[in-house]
Amino acid sequence: MDTEHLSESLFLRALEPDDIDFLYDLENREDSFLVGENCIPFSRDFLQRFVYASLHENLLSTGQLRLVACKTPPLGKKGFEMPPVGVLDFFNHDALHRRAEVGIVVCKDLRGKGLGAKILQEACVYAQNRLNLHQLHAETAVCNTSSVRIFRSCGFKRCGSRRQWIMQGGKWVDVVLWQKIFDE
User: Fold this and answer.
1) In the chain, which ranges are continuous DSSP H helix?
2) Closest CA to 82 of 69, 65, 64, 67
3) How far, in Å, CA of 96 to CA of 47, rounded?
4) How far apart are CA 69 and CA 15, in angstroms?
5) How far apart are CA 60 and CA 118, in angstroms?
6) pTM value?
7) 3-class secondary structure, 42
8) What's the farthest any 2 CA atoms get from each other in the chain?
């Protein structure tokens, strides 16, 4: 894995009410519609309700946990601004079988710097150590070569595909299914 840009450490934190503008920009970018399954914009009101609900609900009750990835502040710096670099979602959580689907989004202006792989590495540690999951799974569009590279570099194994699964730019696109089992 290319570690040139991974020297900065990240930490994952819960959503905060101050994240609404960040989420609004992230969720409503045209390029976000190409990588996710959502194709409609989110209102500020919807995102505000989502953030406030996340403060009172948990993964077991909703099946979803969204965390914000931020750069770790330099040692000894108090009050240091910690802007978000991306988001991490655990969703479709299955407590019985100890698995969840994972998705990441890196802020557009920070892509290509190794942050996606770093967020996914942090997701694996968090899933295994904090959520006690046995495995994570994901799907990516075949044409999303950055995501394919990130999942491979983080030890996810390709476990299948779905033909003509999503519509992007007026064309049907295949998706790759990924799986990472922690106890292997």
Assistant:
1) 20-27, 30-35, 44-56, 59-62, 115-129, 145-153
2) 69
3) 29
4) 10
5) 25
6) 0.82
7) coil
8) 51
